[in-house]
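Team,

Forwarding the record for the chain on the shared tracking sheet. I've put the sequence and predicted structure together so nobody has to dig through attachments.
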Amino acid sequence: MALAIIHRKGDQPVAWLSATPVWKTCLREVAFINGAGSVAAGDELVRDEAAYGLLLEILCGLRSPMVGETQVMGQFREFLAGLDTEHGWLQQLGQRVLADARRIRERHLRGLGSRSYGSAVRRHLLDCGRVALIGAGALAQEILPFAADDGRTVDQWGRRVPVADGRAGIIFHLIDAAARCPRVEAPAALVVAAPVPSRDVSRVASRYVALRRLIDLRDDRVAGRLDLQAPVVTLQDLFDEMQDAREAAGAQIAAAKGEIADLSRAFDRRDQLRPFGWDDLCA
């Protein structure tokens, strides 16, 4: 069985067959198919060496707006962990891709700059001793430890009280009870890491007298549209900063892509030499 994948931008509303393993992120969908597959308009059908190289580029963060970001590797590990036993071949293949991606990151992409949303946000918190973080999902959880760096106090705001994780310096508040919370006088930054309505952002912001900055990571269509005096940093602003870092790290990225090409050719040669299918290929 040769490797064949369909790469699709995440905003294309086309249904997959129920038996097709599909890895979904916020930016893309990757379907692992057996045979020709069904290719819709806008789909990218990739096979063998090119398919393996594409997977490596995605896992190394080279296809992300934030070059070198690490969140995508965690998403792929979760995808592999959720596969049915009938897709054992993909579990084996996935572990090989992860191992190659980790090696490429270690050799070529270390020190690239902000490689996660948390580290990108932290750069805008240096003058603030207090952070108000709205959200309790995956994005908020990624940002939380970076927000708490350097001894900052973090007020985490959400709809329900999360399970305590034992981290010091983090105080949880309910958004619906914001009006009853005391006002904070210390210089603070407000980070919106959940798709909450602007009225909820305003309710939380009203608790912070010296709001230095709003970091609004919602969709650009609603981000920053608030009657606040504080300057606004949007998700697009973070992406633009990462693009600058990408251009400065051109040599590192070129070296990573060179090794990806070598590993992809090695994968393709191994495939051609193994006549017994995926179980033999990935042993």
